[in-house]
Amino acid sequence: MLSNYIKIAIRSILKNKLYALINILGLAVGLTVFIFSWLLVYYETSHDLFFENADRTYTIRGDVSPTADMGIGQIDGVQGAVGPHIKTDLTEVDAVARTVLREFLISVDENNFYDNIRFADPELFEIFDMEFEQGSAAALNSSNNVILTIEMAEKYFPEQDPVGKTITLDHEHDLTVQAVLKDLPANTHFNAGPSRDMVQPLGIIAPMSSIERITGFQPDTNWGNTSMGNLTYVMIPEHLDQEWLQTQMDGLFERHVPQDQRRFLEGFLVRPLVDANTAIWDMIGIPVMTVIQIIGLIVLIIACLNYTNLATAQSMGRAREVGLRKTLGAEKKQLLAQFIIESLTIATIAMFIALTALEIIIPLFNSVT
Predict the structure, then answer these.
(1) Which pTM does this prediction carry?
(2) Integer distance in angstroms from the first to the last C-alpha of the chain?
(3) Can you give the pLDDT at residue 317?
């Protein structure tokens, strides 16, 4: 019986080619936009979940005071001095790590490159279980060392063993490569952001202890610098939660933040690690992910309404068919089944077209972005 209904549905589609084409393409476009928007949002809001400690790792953001007149409600980092105070005051936490981004002219033999270096505390590798191709996390224990990802190692030392080689910063400061880190997947905040200029991919990691010698910047006592991308990570035990950490950070703010800095920041915000990838949208207060989902849903609803309107308009022309089937003894439930299966057939064809379109669109989107 079902196969007969499907045959009737296909015959009806072939008989009314223009009507079927408009309906199928309309539904296909709606489904394509809807599925793509939700896949995009899921991807952007599920970064870093492959890290073992992702569910108990948080970033500390700055809650920007309205009097700062910056046009944003928060920033993704806090001053460098916050990290040491967390270690001292919150003895319950498992690990605290800071990262600071700086751009340098990097010289390797006769070749020069402008690249960013991420200075980090050694605890970074306690929080994030990154894999090493060569060497180990112990490379961050000396201020003269540096860690490269495989991508950067191939860029600086093609077809060579990079361990033991030297890179020079601004023609003045030498760092020795002591470890090579495996490249991270794309779905991590280390490699993502609204643009490569705003959040640089993880490529070069140097010890935080070397930044003062190289740049004069003193992270442990800094209360004035809150540049984007300079993040502070806190990993807490499994029996504690975000609410507990937020309460502790509120107390830390009141105890330690200088009064002159409170004109700029009015508090600290504790955010789950998974939110680090979408921090830019939180900072400017635009719910981009929600908007994308709503747009996708609206397009799908419009496609469904378009289908309904066309089906209603065509129903007048199929009155003779319905009357003939009733005359031949068809019951209401049989007629209902026929039209439902016909609709499902059209929707199924539209879904196959949508999935095919996504197979083409997603790789193109990835290559562009």
Answers:
(1) 0.83
(2) 49
(3) 57
